What does this fold into?
Amino acid sequence: MEEENKTVVNAEEQQNAPAEAKEEPEIKISEMNEEEVALEKADANYTATNIQVLEGLEAVRKRPGMYIGTTASPGLHHLVWEIVDNAIDEALAGYCTEVSVFINEDGTITVVDNGRGIPVDVVAKSGLSGVETVFTVLHAGGKFGEGGGYKVSGGLHGVGASVVNALSEYLDVWVHKDGGVYYIRFENGGHPVGHLERIGDCQDTGTTVKFKPDATIFVETTTYEYAVIRDRMKQIAYLNRGIRINVEDKREGQQKRESFCYEGGIKQYVQFINTNKEKLFDEVIYCEGSEPIELASGTLSHVYAEIALQYNNEYSPNVFSFCNNVNTHEGGTHEEGFKMAITRVLNNYARSIKMLKENDDNLSQSDVLEGLTAIISVKHPNPQFEGQTKTKLGNFEVRKIVSQIVGTQLDRFLMENPRIAKMIVEKIIMAANARLAARKAREEVRRKGSLEFTTLPGKLADCSSKDPTKCELFIVEGNSAGGSAKDGRKRETQAILPLRGKILNVEKAQAKRIFANAEIGNMITAIGGGMDPEFDVTKIRYHKIVIMTDADVDGSHIRILLLTFFYRFMRPLIEQGYVYIAQPPLYKVDFHGKQYYAYTDDQLEEVKSKLKLKPGYPFQRYKGLGEMDATQLFETTMDPDHRKMLRVSLDDAIQAEQVFTDLMGDNVDPRKEFIHTNAKFVKNLDI
Ligand code: 0RA
It folds into this structure.
């Protein structure tokens, strides 16, 4: 970048500029300096590049799913992550301190950063300005030129800003750099409208990108959700300490703004997750370090890892891992390294202070993880994402790096804080004892035959098909609705399991009680894959597990208890999208002997106006599933050809964790709030 001419903006202007050179062409050839060679090359490449660029962007438009996963709402939001990732890279390189995301009044997005500004001079290889290269060449990112800094965007994202351009109706870029304001506009999927142009002067540096997603691509929705953007920005702020991220919604009637900046980074993230939990001790233990690695290209880079942890008095583990700011739901080498190290260090420590005697068994990994909240965050220059959802870190060297960092630094912490160390070991020994007691209880229950994991429960009305991909299990609140569901169902593929009253809150109960709970036992047996830690998703008997509860507060609560249970003991069910929530209608209108159902208030209004009903015309508001007879329940809620269901997804397990914690903890207010907004982490409409 450095050698190139900073005043020249694009290759075309370049052709006309050096008048002196034209007068003495013979000299030019022999005396051409590096700069001129580069520009000449740029010139020649410009036309070729332009063609390639448009072909590249066209490919993105033809198969957007290949680049952003989906053109539904998550894909729409992906465009924002992509632009923000670039700014975060600039921040990680040490040149940017603040990033702002605006949902503009018209629903478009603007992202502003105060970094160095995307290079405006010509990149020899493409013949395009740096800005055009970033926004039109697939995967260009900041990788061209030297001094691009440490790039970490990758994983689920990291497809590049050009993909955003390709999928936008228009995209504007302003760069503040070297005293000038530079501007370029793209339209209709990335076609530049003119070249990058200097439009004014400025003192500061930075990049501003504004775009409007193309409605012909995002056919399902082009509406951004403030909460989704805010949650992700907050997460990025936690994962990259000291960076300030502002979020503002400017749309009429929904104006709001928030700002996130955490000097404590992931230490504060752990505190946040433990907010509503009783902590074992106040300190958050923190380890960090970096190791050099050589890339395939031969260049030297480094892997950076940091870990924060704290114990609480609950029973479930809450270990969340990230690589390059991407939540690695499926774990991977960083998580393995961490779990190995913490188990090893705590066992050694417990033995050294004789809390574990010579003949005692080692503390197991699951005992060590009980009640542990931890964040593992790794930055890797060349991450390998594997697994079903590409959220499992595969780089083998990371296991040892994380294990060594945690090994030495946690060990030192225990030595220096014997009071805390003792509390941790005591807690783990208690967990180990509880585990042994639970195993005994389980064996006893099995011996008595009251919770036989192989005989299907008597309450289950099973379906006749044995093909899990076709089978659906409806878990129904209450015996009366259960009866209607049994009578109305499609017997071949639909099974019904009625639940009596509330199920156990697994968040608060000890393992022993969970195993002995009849309702839980029935679900485990019916679903057929066992439960964590032995849960085997390949053995499940239904590929749709449908929670069907009343549309009232009790129904919401039961739904949350069930979701919590699945999340804690059969997480792959949720991860692989096998869990659904039935959507029974809220209203019924009887009109001339025909029934009309409405699932929302808006739909009710629609029905009223379509049937031209007079004000005051009666309609029924369903309070519970039990108010529908078998036929109605099937037609409105269970019939695969007509029903609407929500598929439960954990896009962000931490968000879910926070939601579950709020709900299940002793703090009552968040629970109330949740009951009204729980659609938030239940995404993807499905029929
Ligand atoms: C490559 C090199 C340089 C900056 C950037 C990329 C850059 C890219 C983006 C994308 C969004 N915001 C950005 N800010 C900077 C360094 C240029 C130099 O050395 O001056």
